[in-house]
Amino acid sequence: MANRKLPVRPDTGKSSVRVRLQRINAGLAKSYPPSGDGAQWWARLKAALGTSSSDFVNATLLQLQSAARLPNSGISEIAINAALSFIESAKPQTEVEAALVVQMACSHAAAMAVLSRIGGAHGGDRHVASMAAAASRLLRAYALQLETLRRWRNGASQYMRIEHIHIEPDAQAVIGNFQHNAGND
Questions:
Q1: What is the tens place of the pLDDT at every residue in 149-168?
Q2: Bridge partner residues of 30 (DSSP)
Q3: Strand ranges (DSSP E) for the chain?
Q4: d(CA 104, CA 138)
């Protein structure tokens, strides 16, 4: 695998940060660099997660192992590397943004896993209906997470558009942009 050239991200000119896993037991694996310098790999993981904290990176990798699994399987390098690519492409700037983006990556993976179970329509109508409801909730959660990230980054600005104005005879109106200064009342 060391000789295989990884696809390059168009936005950075580098390949996505990746991990290899050394299985410790059925539910836990140790992450290590796929090749090359471990210090450089760790710095890339920190940059991808928008943090300077090694503890945050370690916790995130363990959370991804628990949450980002492929259907009917245990820990998966493919699932973790897909989640890391997702996270890196969102470019989180802080641990708060990274935590939200990790949730988004895991919600997406879970929704896709549930949707894959609907595809064969195995288990009868009740099973399909419950899987569809679960997928719907996961996809709604993902959309809310995406909107939360947008608001976090851009501010929760409000916009008011006035459609009709009724001004009574002999009334005064001000039209245009103005600011009310509370201290000058």
A1: 999 998 866 666 777 777 88
A2: 22
A3: 20-25, 28-32
A4: 10
